[in-house]
């Protein structure tokens, strides 16, 4: 399991610019069919082969200058609880503000690693000015960086990654790890209790359960797997607090330590922004996914409701929406076993390995039927394909001119793979390599 790094700081210091630079993203995901823009607050970053999760806490609040200090205080404390390291971003061109001092006061009290990042240090004069931030008394060093031109980020990342703690696998059992995730009140505990309550004897706490997560072995209905949950460090937020921030922060560890995530939605609410934020996190981690539409008992049903509901959910989840969708009631115990069965199937899909000979037989034919278009008069030839020995399905296509293979063609390849083998519920990665 990787380390989790949170970016904190007041509005406009450059948190999202830094986030985009470190995760290599440029813009928010725009889902044109559904007409929604998804903010990217959570992403994966990689520095010299070390992968980590990055969360931009500022992405959750309105970017206004008069955010309540109390709200920020709560966000920062939750970020401290849920992450392994903090990037405290300041604006060297603007200098220290009362707001910065308030955040610093909270950060000084944590035992977690905090890095003081002096952003907007675009030139040597500004790099020198960054020394002002030593007065905060946090950490040993101030890291002057420019998120816009990238200078200084290498030194900062070297320090960050060098301090990472090696995280041991949380249990060594070779069983599917399944997690129930979703924002507060969708029915996560009701579901887990309903499943576990069937027969308490089928449940054993697994040794190696850490402070952060609880692993419970479940044996019953012909299944044997581990249910992953995170320990409730903090209580559920009150109604007016930032539910999205809370549910995203609280889900990171759970998602990262699972193989398959059951994303629970509330049927009475439909798909909301925070549901999509959690879904994106599952997909970015290349975990398997099952969508569970809970509280179905509360809806008055006409003949087509389920079909329409399902179509609408798929539209909202796009581009990747090839996931099982199950309509349930946790209180009435309806179709919960079906959710489990789907989760196990998705797990099997995720560990599926296609024989190279079979893969080539099918895919080379599909490529022959629809060749990548020639570019500048050059013929593009894909000669060979193999599935890489990775934990999540990854396919490498070997090609004479990999740089000319477009994303649309990669999507064609992915669709062909999905048409020929069952990868329902599982994100697939396609690489094109030079041969
Ligand atoms: P956030 O509210 O903390 O997420 O801040 P943003 O990332 O939205 O950045 C606020 C403004 O600062 C934007 O206009 C950015 O272009 C600008 N900015 C961010 N990083 C830098 C930097 O390194 N140098 C300069 N000169 N401007 C920056
Ligand atoms: P969690 O915060 O996601 O763990 O949600 P809970 O399991 O605590 O459920 C929140 C509320 O929704 C509780 O009052 C549950 O009784 C109720 N609830 C959960 N599942 C269902 C369901 O399938 N149908 C109905 N009618 N209520 C449900």
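Q: What amino acid sequence fits the structure above?
A:
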């Amino acid at each position: 399991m990787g380390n989790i790094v949170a970016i904190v700081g007041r509005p406009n210091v450059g948190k999202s610019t830094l986030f985009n630079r470190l995760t290599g993203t440029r813009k928010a995901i725009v889902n044109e069919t559904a007409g929604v823009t998804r903010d990217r607050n959570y992403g994966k970053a990689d520095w010299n082969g070390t992968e980590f999760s990055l969360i931009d806490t500022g992405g959750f609040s309105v970017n206004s200058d008069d955010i309540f200090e109390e709200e920020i205080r709560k966000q920062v404390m939750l970020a401290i609880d849920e992450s392994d390291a903090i990037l405290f971003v300041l604006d060297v061109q603007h200098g220290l503000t009362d707001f910065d001092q308030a955040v610093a006061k909270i950060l000084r009290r944590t035992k977690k690693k905090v890095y003081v990042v002096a952003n907007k240090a675009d030139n040597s004069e500004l790099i020198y000015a960054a020394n002002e931030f030593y007065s905060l008394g946090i950490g040993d060093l101030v890291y002057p960086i420019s998120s816009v031109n990238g200078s200084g980020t290498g030194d900062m990342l070297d320090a960050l990654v060098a301090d990472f703690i090696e995280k041991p696998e949380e249990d060594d059992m070779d069983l599917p790890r399944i997690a129930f995730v979703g924002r507060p009140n969708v029915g996560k505990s009701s579901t887990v209790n309903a499943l576990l309550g069937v027969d308490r004897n089928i449940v054993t706490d697994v040794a190696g359960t850490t402070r952060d997560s609880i692993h419970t072995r479940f044996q019953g209905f012909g299944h044997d797997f581990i249910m992953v949950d995170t320990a409730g460090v903090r209580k559920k937020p009150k109604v007016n607090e930032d539910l999205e921030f809370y549910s995203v922060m609280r889900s990171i560890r759970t998602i990262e330590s699972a193989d398959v995530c059951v994303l629970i939605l509330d049927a009475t609410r439909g798909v909301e922004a925070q549901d999509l934020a959690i879904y994106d996190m599952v997909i970015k981690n290349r975990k398997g996914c099952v969508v569970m539409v809970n509280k179905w008992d509360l809806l008055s049903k006409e003949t087509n409701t389920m079909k329409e509901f399902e179509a609408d959910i798929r539209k909202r989840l796009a581009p990747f929406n090839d996931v099982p969708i199950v309509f349930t009631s946790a209180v009435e115990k309806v179709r919960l076993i079906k959710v489990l069965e789907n989760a196990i199937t998705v797990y099997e899909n995720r560990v599926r390995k296609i024989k190279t000979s079979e893969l080539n037989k099918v895919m080379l034919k599909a490529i022959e039927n629809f060749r990548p278009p020639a570019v500048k008069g050059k013929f593009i030839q894909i000669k060979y394909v193999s599935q890489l020995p990775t934990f999540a399905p990854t396919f490498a296509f070997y090609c004479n001119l990999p740089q000319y293979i477009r994303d649309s063609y990669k999507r064609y390849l992915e669709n062909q793979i999905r048409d020929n083998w069952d990868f329902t519920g599982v994100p697939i990665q396609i690489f094109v390599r030079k041969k």
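Q: And what stands out in the fold?
A: The longest helix spans residues 336-350.
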